[in-house]
Amino acid sequence: METSELRLWLKDAAGFDGESIPGELVPVFEALRSKYEAEAQKQRDALAELAKTIRQLREQRHLFTLLVNGTSDMFVMFSAKNYQVEYVSPNIEYLLGLSMEEVKKDIRRISKTAVQLDLEPIAEQLRAIPLGGSIQILNEHIHQRSGERRWYQKTVYHFFINDDHKYILVMSERTSEMETQKRLEIAMEMAESANQAKSNFLANMSHDIRTPMNAIIGFSNLINHDAEKPVKVREYARKIHSSGQHLLSLINDVLDMSKIESGKTALNISEFHLSQLLEEIGIVVNPQAKAKKQDFEVLAHGINADCVIGDKTRINQILLNLLSNSVKYTPEGGQIKLIITQKQRSGGKMSHLRFQVADNGMGMSPEYLKVIFDSFTREDEAVSGIQGTGLGMAITKNLVDLMGGVISVESQKNQGTMFTVDLTLQAAETDSDKNFWDRSFVKRLLVVDDEEDICLDIEAAMAETGVDVVHATDGRQAIRLAELALKENNPYDMVLLDWKMPDMSGVEAARLIKDELDGCAPVAILMAYDWSDVEDEAFAAGIDGFLPKPFFVTNLRAIAKHLDSQNPELEEQAEGSENILSGLRFLAAEDNELNAEILKELLGLEDAECELAENGKVALDMLMESAPGYYDMILMDVKMPVMDGYTAARAIRQCSHPDGKTIPMAAMTASAFDEDVHQALESGMDAHIAKPVDMNILKGTVQQLLGNADGRDRRE
Amino acid sequence: MTVKEFYAVIGGDYEGAVKCLGDDLAIKKWLLKLSADPCFQELQDAMSKGKQEEIARAANTLKALSLNLSLTKLGQSSRRLEDAARSGITMETLVLFHAVEVDYAAVVSVIDKMLGQIE
Questions:
Q1: Is the model's pLDDT at A674 over the cut of 60?
Q2: CB-neighbour burial class of residue A335 (10 A; exposed 0-12, middle 13-18, buried 19+)
Q3: What are the C-alpha distances in Å from A429 to residues A309, A313, A447?
Q4: What's the distance, Cα to Cα, between the start and end of chain B in Å?
Q5: Which span out of A234-243, A263-272, A566-575, B21-30 was modeled with the highest average pLDDT?
Q6: A570-577: long-range contacts at Cβ-Cβ below 8 A with a sequence spacing of 24 or more?
Q7: Is A204 a residue whose pLDDT tops 90?
Q8: What's the count of helices (H) and strands (E) in chain B, helices before strands?
C-alpha cells in the first residue's frame, strides 16, 4: 500500500492523523494494517457464516412449524429438572383445545385433560426413563373446547440437549384405530355368539331331527313285524305320519328363515276380513286349547274397519305362531287371550291394529327375553320336553318387520307372557256397507251383555252404519227396554243377547222377549265358542241366529241379510260398472286341465268365451288358423310343456297373422316378482296377471289393454 | 264338516276361495275335481324319472292349481319344491317332495271326508 493510502486508511479506520507518522514507522503501521484487515475479513466471513446458519435455522424452523401444524401429532419439550416447558407445537390448540400459553405455564395441564387420570405418568416414572429411552401411554383425552373425546398414544423420550436433560412428549392421535378395534371386538363377539347359537342350534336340531327319525324308522320296523295286524299297522302309520309332519315343520322353518334372510319373501296383499281371520284362527287354536283344558278367549275393541288390505296368510302365520307357543308353554287349565284393538283410524284409510297374545303360562327369563327374536335361540329350561327349532320367533319378527310393524314382549317367569304386534293396514273401501244398512230393516239394535265394555265396543263398531244402538247389561233391563220401545211405537228391529249372563241366560231372556212382546224383532245370541251343542235348545226358545264373539259388523250384516229374505232390495248390487268381459273371446294357454277349466268357467260367469290350448305351440297354431279379430285377447300360462309362454309370446309377435303384433296378451304366473313381470313384457306380452286370477284385476287389465288397442273398441 | 272348516283344517284360505270360485257349492265342485286331476301323478312320475325340468314344471302346475283353489299350505309346499327343483335334484328336493306328498294327501283325504265319501 502506498504511504498516502496508508495515512488515509489510518484516518478512516482508526481516526488517527496519519500525516504525523514518521517515515521509519510506516512499515510497522503497514504490518499492523494487514493484520487488522485479515482479522476484519475473518470476522466478516464468520458473520456471513452465522447469518447463513441463522437463515438456515429459520428455514428449518419454518419447515418444522409447517410440519408440526400439518400433523395430528403434538410435541412438547420440557426440562427434566424443573418441568419448565421450552417448546409446544402450535397445533395443541387445535388438537386438545389448550393454548400454548396454558401449557407453557404448566405441563401438567395436558394430563388434566385425560379421561383416565391414573394412567398419566408421574414424576417417578419420568425419572426412571433412561437416557435415549422412552415410555408409552395410551389414553383418551377430552378436547377442552368441543368436549370431543380422542385417543392419543403418548411417548415420552429422555434426551440430553444443549447440556441439559430434556423430556420430549410426542402425542399421536389414535381415535380411528381405537374405534375400528372396538368395532372389530364387537363383531368378534357377535360372530362368536352367533357361532355359539348356531352350534347350540345344530346340537338341538340334531336331537330334534333324530328323535322323529328314530320314531319313523322304529315304527317302520314294527310295521314289518306286525304286518298282519291292521289295527297296529294303522297306529304305527299314524305315528310315522305325525313324526314326519314334525320333521317337515323343522325343515320348513329353516327354509322360511333362509328365504326371509336372503330377502326373497314378498308379501301377498289382498282384501280380507278380520272377522274371517279370527274365525280361522279359532278353528285351529280352539281344539288345541280344549285338549289342554285351557280357556281361550278372543276379544276385539274398537274395530270399525273389518275389511282391510294386507297379507292375511302371513298375519295368520304370526298369530298362530304366538298362540301355538302360548298353548305349548301354558299348563293345563291355563288362560290364553287374543285381543285385537283398533288403536286409531286416521283421517285417511289407515287402520292401526294392535294384536296381543297373552297367557298365564310359564313365562320367560329376562336373559332370554333379550335374545328371544334372534335365530336359533330357545329358553334353556323350556327346551326339555318341548320341541321346536328356535326359529319360530325369528320368523315371526321378520314377518312383522316385513309388514312395517312392531313386535314386543313382556314376560315374567311362572306368571305369564304377553306379545304385542302393532300393524298398520289399509282399510278397504266399504261404501257398500253404508248402502246395505241404509236399505236394511235394522234401524234400531238392542245389545245385551253383562260386560258393558263389550256393549260399548259394539256401539263403536256400528257407529258408521247409521243404526241406532242401545245397550243393556242384564236380561231384565233388556226386557224393560224392549217393552218401552214397543209402547213408544219405536221398537227394536233386532236384539243381540249374550249367551251367559248372571241374572238370566240369553236363551231365557230370548224366550221372555219372544213370549211377552208381540211381533218382536229377531233375536240372535252372541257366543264366544262353538254353539252346535246348544243350537237345538236355542232354536226351540225362538232364537233366530248366532253371532260369534268378538263382534264384527260383517257378521251382523250376514245375519241381517239372511233374516230379511223378504226384502229383495237387500240383494247386493254388483260392484263396479258394466261387465267389461261380456262378449269377449279369449284364447287361454294352460297345460293343466283343471286350472284351464276353472279359468273357462270364471270367464263364462262373466259372459266371456274362452277357448283352451294345452301349451304355447297349440295356442300359436290356434291363432294362425283363426280369422282376424276372432280372438280379443290371449291369456298365457308361462310354464308349459312343448312350448312355454314366453317362447309362444315371441312367436306370436313375429308370426304372419294380422293380429299377431297387436292382439293383447297377458302372462299368468303364480309368482309376482319383478323379474317375472319383466320377462313377460320382454317377450312381447302386454301385462302380467298373478295367479290365482282375480276377476276384478283381470277386468281392469282388459279394460286397460283393450282401451289401448289403437283406440278401437274391440267388442262388438 | 263345512267348507269353511275344511279350509281351516288343511291350512287354506276360505275367504280367498269364495272370492275366486263363488259359493260353497262351487268350491266343493272344484275340490272334488282335484282328486281326479293328474297334476300330482305327473309330479310323482317326474320325481321317479328324476327329470329336473319336469319336476319344476309339475310343481309349478300344482302350485297354480293350489292357488286357484286357495289351498295355501299345499301351494306353499309346491312353491318350495319348485324353487328347489330349479337348482337341481338334491336331498332337499326329495324332502320337499315328501312335504308336497303329505300336504296333497291331507287335502285329498279331508276332501273325501267333507264330501262324505269316507266316514
A1: no
A2: middle
A3: 10, 21, 27
A4: 11
A5: B21-30
A6: A570/A436, A570/A439, A570/A440, A572/A432, A572/A436, A573/A432, A573/A435, A575/A432, A576/A696, A576/A699
A7: no
A8: 7, 0
Q: Which residues, including other chains, have CB under 8 Å from residue B75's CB and lie 6 or more apart? A: A670, B63, B66, B67
Peptide bond before residue A287 is cis, with ω within 30 degrees of 0: no
Q: Is the pLDDT of residue A663 over 90?
A: yes
E-assigned strands of A597-684?
A: 609-613, 633-637, 665-669
Asked if the C-beta of B39 comes within 8 angstroms of chain A's C-beta atoms, the answer is: yes
Question: What does the pLDDT average to over A535-558?
Answer: 81
What is the rounded average pLDDT of the residues A244-273?
70
CB A465 within 8 A of CB A434: yes
Residues B100, B75: Cα–Cα separation, whole Å? 9
Position A704 pLDDT exceeds 60: yes
Cβ A639–B61 below 8 Å, yes or no?
Answer: yes
> DSSP readout, A565-586?
TT-GGGSPPPSSSS-TTTT-EE
Contact (CB<8Å) B68/A273:
no
Position A715 scores a pLDDT of 37
Question: Per the structure block, which three cell numbers stand in for A363?
Answer: 313365562
Question: What is this model's ipTM?
Answer: 0.74
- pLDDT, tens digit, for every residue of B6-65? 888 888 888 888 888 888 888 888 888 888 888 898 888 888 777 888 888 899 889 989
Q: Which residues contact A5 (CB under 8 A, 6 or more apart)?
A: none
Cell triple for A282: 279359532
Q: Which three cell numbers stand for residue A117?
A: 387420570
- What pLDDT does residue A19 have? 67
Q: H or E stretch including A681?
A: helix A674-682
Under a CB-based contact definition with an 8 Å cutoff, are residues A496 and A526 in contact?
yes
Mean pLDDT across chain A: 81
Which of A423, A387, A197, A450 is closest to A308 using CA atoms? A423
**Is residue A355 within 8 Å of A319, Cβ to Cβ?**
yes
Grid coordinates of B56: 319344476
Interface of A to B at Cβ within 8 Å reads 241, 244-245, 248, 251-252, 255, 270, 272-273, 276, 279-280, 283-284, 312-313, 591-595, 597-598, 602, 605, 637, 639-641, 670, 691-694
Cα–Cα distance for residue pair A643/A656, rounded to 1 Å: 18
Q: What pLDDT, on the 0 to 100 scale, is given for residue A17?
A: 66
What are the tens digits of pLDDT across the range A557-585? 878 877 775 444 444 443 444 578 888 99
Contact A692 B20 (CB under 8 A): yes
Give the pLDDT confidence score for residue A586 in this predicted structure.
95
Cβ neighbour number for residue A626 with a 10 Å cutoff: 15
Contact B104, B73 (CB under 8 A): no
Q: In the β-sheet with A494-498, what is the strand arrangement from edge to edge?
A: A468-472, A444-448, A494-498, A523-527, A545-548
Closest by CA to A201, choosing from A412, A392, A417, A409, is A392
Q: Quick one: pLDDT at residue A383?
A: 47
Quote the longest CA-to-CA distance of chain A: 169
A605 to chain B, closest Cα gap in Å: 10
Q: How confident is the model at residue A34 (pLDDT cuts 50, 70, 90)?
A: confident
Choose the mutation target among B7, B21, B60, B108 for the interface with A, i.e. most A CBs under 10 Å.
B60
